[in-house]
Amino acid sequence: MAPFTWAVSFILSMFHSLLSALGMDSESGWNWTISIILLVILIRVILIPLFVRQIKSQRGMQIIQPEIQKLQAKYKGKKDPVSRQAMAQEQQALFKKHKVNPFMTCLPILAQMPIFFALFWMLNRMRQEQYQQDGYGALSPQEVQSFDGSSIFGVQMSDIFLPSFQADPTQWNVVFLAIILIICMVGSQFFTQKQLMSKNMSEAAMQGQFAQTQKIMLYMLPLVFVIGGVNFPVGVLIYWTATNFWTLGQQWWVIRNNPTPGSLAEKELNLRRAAKGLPPINEDKTAKAKDDKPKPTGKHLGQQAQPSKKKRKKK
């Protein structure tokens, strides 16, 4: 994790110095808060190619759902090792045929985890005397002391909801800010998943194992954030809340402008296009497919074949 820790600390130091040069107080907690938000924006911009691959993989998984359901019905009730291996091989062949990788659907989240843990460990070590004297990663000792001593609404970046409340139940500012951030973090995560399921899934994808997985994520991920949120430093809560809002906005734009074929979002987009006098988004593809078909010959047009003349035998 050392390379990620150094990278996170370097980016924070760079943004903190930039904001200070623009006139913000270098000791202000808002300076460090905006630096964390800018860190989120930079990371998410870098991850845009992975997000595009995630969208393509999600759509591919939705498209092949009818075939997966047929495969599951084929091996229903067969639990012997041979049948399970055969089903796994056929499923992998199906993924390869349609160029779908289920792992890509969660890759952007996994790619952010090293950044998340690097920030988490950094905030947990800010108050240690060793790092305040020697610095941490790319942060100088002065920047470490500034980060640790800065606050917003009277709450420091390294304050944690549960330990702070247990140590001093009168620290309501920590409790209130942490609860607000957790609610924003969980709410944005829930709405992002709900938006995906209600707007951007085809009718075929709303059934079967894929739909069940999406429903589990709808309720389980917010629960994970609630449990983890009470043990996250405020700086980490700011980071994860900001990245959830980025995901929500990014997904909203994709669903509105480039929806999954056969989804409710596609129907809504076509209604908006019709109101502007524009053709449906798939009309050009359909017309092109028709033009690419081979033109029918005379036999296909219903012309009758001319009878061949028979040679008369000479007497």
UniProtKB/TrEMBL annotation:
Transmembrane segments annotated in the record for this chain: 30-52, 103-123, 172-191, 216-240
Localization: Cell membrane; Membrane
Keywords: Cell membrane, Chaperone, Membrane, Protein transport, Transmembrane, Transmembrane helix, Transport
Membrane topology: Multi-pass membrane protein
Biased composition regions of type Basic and acidic residues, renumbered to the chain: 282-295
Domain of life: Bacteria
Domain Membrane insertase YidC/Oxa/ALB C-terminal: 32-255
Presence of the UniProt keyword Transport in the record: yes
InterPro entries, per database record: YidC/ALB3/OXA1/COX18, YidC/Oxa/ALB_C, YidC_ALB_C
NCBIfam families: PRK01315.1, yidC_oxa1_cterm
Primary role: Required for the insertion and/or proper folding and/or complex formation of integral membrane proteins into the membrane. Involved in integration of membrane proteins that insert both dependently and independently of the Sec translocase complex, as well as at least some lipoproteins. Aids folding of multispanning membrane proteins.
Oligomeric form and interacting partners: Interacts with the Sec translocase complex via SecD. Specifically interacts with transmembrane segments of nascent integral membrane proteins during membrane integration.
Family the UniProt entry places it in: Belongs to the OXA1/ALB3/YidC family. Type 1 subfamily.
Protein name, per record: Membrane protein insertase YidC
